[in-house]
Amino acid sequence: MAQAKSQFGYRRHPDQDRSGQSPAEHAVVVVGAGPVGLSLAIDLAQRGQRVVLLDDADRIGEGSRAICFSKRSLEYWDRLGVGDRMVDKGVVWSVGRIFHGESQLYQFNLLPENGHKRPAFINLQQYYAEAYLVDRIDDLPEIDLRWRNKVTALEQRNGSVALTIETPEGAYRVLAQYVVACDGARSSLRQMVGAEFAGQVFEDQFLIADVKMTAEFPTERWFWFDPPFHAGRSALLHRQPDDVWRIDLQLNRYADPVVEKKPENVRPRIARMLGHDKFAFEWISLYKFQCRRMDRFIHGRVVFAGDSAHQVSPFGARGANSGLEDAENLSWKLDRVLRGRSPASLLESYHLERSMAADENIRESTRSTDFMAPNSHQEARLRKAVLSLAKETEFGKRMVNGGRLSVPCSYDSPLSSLDADTWHGGPSPGCSMLDAPVTTPAGEQIYLTDAFRKGGTDFTLLSFSNGAAIDAPDGVKGIRIGGKGGFADPSGLVAKRYGAEPGAAYLLRPDGYVAARFRHPARAAIAAALVRAEGLY
Amino acid sequence: MPLSTSSNFARPDDAFRAIVEAHRGLTEEQSADFDSALVLILANHIGDIDVLREAIGLAKRRMIDGQQQQQQQQ
């Protein structure tokens, strides 16, 4: 079985020597060093914030757990300086196939076009992702990562949060202006603030086995309804690095988890699927899924991100990826609030935008799970009809729901300025920026996401040159496409994907979302959009 | 376009008859399977989620009205 890949030592911190009456004061304490907490800490540190990152364990979690990381997550990790490592180690894929019984119903390509720096998805064991993020933290003295530090009490005060932290050498206290709870689905901080975590529990159980073997399956996502090796239920196969394969088998709701998890009982199931038993188990887990979210992601000065705030079924890769989107959405806002550059109310937009995304993710993953595990005879009958129609009709294929994979949510947000012009194509305000190849003034071929990152991941005016200079408001970075000294768009894909004619401009937020766009930008309109996006509306 | 509830077939009896005949000789279970497929095919042909929702609403309303009538008779 899988071993913990990295072990980290507990180290005493001077904060622990302070008296309970004068605890150390910190700007931000992030609780939970999983993918979300680690990424958020790095992002905040890169923005110049000092971060205390607490984790109750002393090692990276066991088991592959989240394995599918989306294009959006990779673009975020590029900004955090770990994208290359993730992609180099990860298994790149964009094609999925859906089978019914013995035969293929259809296949899909999640990124059928060229001209993107990052693929639709990589598969990578969560322990690798976490290890690379921890390595990155070693380069960032702003982050104080404390292992075996478990928050046991939380008290909201006027202007700060007091945390009591248990360590192997006893408890100590710290004060924080803001606490971000990235402590997972069973979040103890969520209980400490007394928040409910209500939603839907799915009774069907799913067996997840990661097996090590050499196999000739292509690097694709394969999903079966009613396969010959697992009659009447669904199955999923994913490739991971190191010759590890993720196999996900639907079990019935009455299966005994203790019995089903035993390797000697899992082995024949997997052998039936593979047609041989030349494999070794890396990890076995049995799941019952829940789709639920907190009513509010912000409680006083405690902000919830990732699984602590929302939980989805895994079909669609919407768990870790949405948590990473939480982190990228929160970090720039928290940074601005801590610097006094935006009012604390800017954080409310984090709750609005990300709870909207959570609703979308829950809706999508609930639909997938319901399709896989129908709740009634009639639901099963409708599914049967869809699967049979899919054999000969396009509409049937598109109704088959074997998981709708994570794409960035579009926000209906108070930070967005509505289009004043008529646009044909391009990301509208509240949508994520799109990638495309560009050539730097020095002749280097990079991508728009690179240019955004190198520009400093701040408010950025992406403008399409028509010869006249556009005045960007103070403090706004610029990426100019075309014109002397600008980026070239040799493939024309930037202009095409942004539906932009010369003279147009997009105002991008620090998380790469479109705040506003203008076909004929005027300085005053850009400034007004900026004020709105900074939360000064 | 709202759901059309005016009579659209030149010969409505032919349409009703075609559906009835499709069910002839089927078991209850087969009939239900058939109806499910037919509903999905027609829904896709309509291709308008608002019209579909209106149609669902109309069908549901008939059921509720029917239940209420039954209760009143009892």
UniProtKB/TrEMBL annotation, chain A:
Q: Name the UniProt key words of this record, in alphabetical order.
A: FAD, Flavoprotein
Domain of life, per the record?
Answer: Bacteria
**Which Gene3D superfamilies does this UniProt record tie to the protein?**
3.30.70.2450, 3.40.30.120, FAD/NAD(P)-binding domain
- Known InterPro entries for this protein? FAD-bd (IPR002938), FAD/NAD-bd_sf (IPR036188), RIFMO-like (IPR050641)
Instruction: Say yes or no: keyword Transmembrane present.
Output: no
FAD-binding domain boundaries: 27-364
NADP in keyword set: no
Which cofactors go with this protein?
A: FAD
Task: Provide the residue span(s) of the region labelled Disordered.
Answer: 1-24
PANTHER family listed in its UniProt record = BINDING MONOOXYGENASE, PUTATIVE (JCVI)-RELATED, TRK SYSTEM POTASSIUM UPTAKE PROTEIN
The entry's protein name is FAD-dependent oxidoreductase
Give the taxonomic lineage as stored in the record. Answer: Bacteria, Pseudomonadati, Pseudomonadota, Alphaproteobacteria, Hyphomicrobiales
UniProtKB/TrEMBL annotation, chain B:
InterPro entries, per the entry: DUF2783
Pfam short name (any one): DUF2783
Superkingdom field: Bacteria
According to UniProt, the name of this protein is DUF2783 domain-containing protein
The source organism is: Bradyrhizobium diversitatis
